Amino acid sequence: MNKPIRIAVTGAAGQIGYSLLFRLASGEVFGKDTPVILHLIELPQAIQAAEGVAMELHDCAFESLHAVEIFDNPTAGFEGVHWALLVGSSPRRAGMLRKELISINAPIFVDQGKALLKADTSIRCVVVGNPCNTNALIALSHAQDIPSSRFYAMTALDETRAKYQLADKAGCSVKDVRKLAIWGNHSNTMVPDYENTLINGKPLREMIQDETWLNKTFMSTVQERGAQIIQARGKSSAASAASACIHHLKAATAITPADDVFSAAVLSDNNPYDIASGLVFSFPLQFDHAGNHSIYPGLAHSSALKDKIRHTEQDLLNEREVVKDFLTS
Ligand code: NAX
């Protein structure tokens, strides 16, 4: 047996938590020989629901699930953890502006950033709770002893949404779609980069020549997918978001193939694409054997796509302005 791995999940009794925890417990990510200890972190009023989730986790009798511990605060909940998955956040209510949502969530991520200092020295953190890029920026700014390169905001769901659309249009398998980068904010300004995507190792445009579909239908389908799902299901994406989080963990713990990239939002300092510093911005990444990432360099863009990337950069600059009082200098 390997050494146990402790994984904290905030918002453990929420929709995404309900899909994510079972897949973490199953051994799917870290292997069946790695015991998993889950830290379920919830608000005090949702602890009873978290206890119900814990019962169900035990009832699955997963061989790799070593223990489930429940916490009503991040300071105790993050103690000794190797991965922190920050899923919980305050939801957007009817009539609430995005700016208000950002301000309500900011203090949560100040506290969680500070609490992460209790984690294992190897801690890596994935922020899922929205607005995830800006929440990650706040958390990393308050966890200054932890290298900022260990913080990601999740854009893997945007990547898998885009991958499916392109595979469906090209009539190929999703595994044939490679080098699909997601740029910027996990909001409807995010840019799925079809210009650099490969299908079966060839430029995508050799397979898909329908420019109107690419520029309009594809782009808006991916950017608006979250809203479409809410409209159809009456609830936001949950199983697909949990699946994307699993996908992120697998990608971040394996060497990225040379002909592929994996997208996640990371601190933009010293990036090779002239994006402003001090943002948590989604880039195409490659991971090495030690779990360190580098931003994949040298991708070229048309002026139309460059404009879209500038627009999502501005979106993040605006969000940063809203939370400037919650950032450490
Ligand atoms: P739910 O409302 O079902 O669950 C959220 C849970 O978080 C609740 O149980 C709540 O009690 C808990 N919570 C709230 N504040 C907390 C805190 N300070 N500490 C611990 N727990 C806390 O939401 P769910 O559908 O699970 O979505 C969670 C977050 O993921 C939302 O912010 C949502 O917008 C975001 N998403 C992010 C995605 C991404 O790709 N990055 C996609 C899916 C999703 O929209």
In words, what does this structure look like?
This protein has helices at 15-25, 47-59, 74-77, 98-115, 132-141, 156-170, 211-223, 225-233, 239-252, 303-322, and strands at residues 5-10, 36-41, 65-71, 83-86, 124-127, 151-153, 177-178, 181-183, 191-193, 198-199, 202-203, 262-267, 280-287, 293-295. The protein has 329 residues and is an alpha/beta fold. The chain has a six-stranded parallel beta sheet with strand order 3-2-1-4-5-6, sandwiched between helices. α1 (15-25) crosses α9, α4 (98-115) packs parallel to α5 (132-141) and α6 packs antiparallel against α7 (211-223). The radius of gyration is 19 Å and the shape is globular. The chain starts with a strand and ends in a 7-residue tail after the last helix. The model has no long low-confidence stretch (mean pLDDT 96). The structure holds ligand NAX. Ligand NAX is lined by residues 10-11, 13-17, 41-43, 46, 87-91, 108, 128-130, 132, 154, 157, 186, 226, 236-238, 241.
Bound molecules: ligand NAX
Category by helix and strand content: alpha/beta
Contiguous runs where pLDDT drops below 50 for at least 5 residues: none
Task: Compute the number of helices.
Answer: 10
Rounded mean pLDDT is 96
Tell me the β content: 15-25%
Distance between the amino and carboxyl termini: 43 Å
Please give the share of residues in helix.
25-40%
Major β-sheet strand ordering: 3-2-1-4-5-6
Shape: globular
| Radius of gyration computed on alpha carbons | 19 Å
The count of strands amounts to 14
Characterize the biggest β-sheet: 6 strands, parallel
The topology string of helices and strands comes to EHEHEHEHEHEHEEEEEHHHEEEH
